[in-house]
Amino acid sequence: MRHPRFILQIRQRGAALLMAMIIVTLVATLSASMVWQQWRATQVEGAERVRAQAGWVLVGALDWARLILREDGRNNTSDNLGEVWAMPLAESRLSSFLAADGDNNASEDDMPEAFLSGKVDDATAKYSLLRLLSADGEIDPKELAVLRRLCEFASLQPSLADGLAQSLHLARLATAADNPDVLAKLGGEQGRASAPLMPQTVDQILWLGLDAATLERLRPYVTILPLDAPGTVNVNTAPKEVIAAVVDGLDLARASRLVQTRQRNPFKSLDEVRTALGPAASSNGWDLSRLDVKSDYFEVKGRLRYEDNVIEQRHLVQRMVGSNDVVVRHQTRFSGLDTANGGGSPP
Fold first, then answer.
1. Which end of the chain is more exposed for a tag (fewer CB within 10 A), N or C?
2. What is the per-residue pLDDT for 298?
3. Which residues pair with residue 292 across a beta bridge?
């Protein structure tokens, strides 16, 4: 039989070994946690740096687009799809732009694999949905007829226009629901709570009750412009469906001929549009006042792709009449995974 002191020494050694193992485990855990936190902080700092740099690059792209639009407005009395502003920037490696800068000493191999692309779209080539509402927020019957024709030309149910107009009407009332009379029109607090939000971009039209598939069908033809924007569309840039919709009585065939004519020789004035339509314009009494040959609103889109991450910025800009200054009226940003690699798409 072993001596009690011997047994006590064994127990003490076991306790010491157990304590040492616990200490080693704690040290390893704390070390791993510190390393992970340091790695995480580095990753966050790197992501923030990339985001900030991407923001500056896209701001530079916006400034470049504004410069082009400013110069175009100074030198031309009409706008068409053959001008410089309408030429999209295909995706190009960012280092190719930096290498062109003589003051930049960084070599192309030192630059990150970032790619820049962008385009400028004529916003006045589409029908602005806010035209459906009059100055007092009521539905304008003439504008509702325009949207009904547009839906029909786009192979959608004309009744869709009625639903959009009613939703916009409710959204407009909800913005002024502090007025007791307006609140009564909404049906009280419950009506205000259920009213949709007023959209500021085409993507937000989903708030009005549209499904994604219907929105994609409408996207080439509609937009959201400020309430003070003119209701004209540019006959040099608009699709045939929009041209036919805003000119009551004009059919798609004649609108298509206008599109073919402008591809050869863009219209410089509405007189040229009347000439292209022929005697039918006068005999049918077509009102061409909703057409124009010049644009004031444009959507500038910039996209920066870094590895599988994408940052996109969209700016609605207005070219001011007279001064030709280009001001930003609205902007949105999206960041996420590249759609080509299974990521999401901009909202």
1. N
2. 96
3. 234
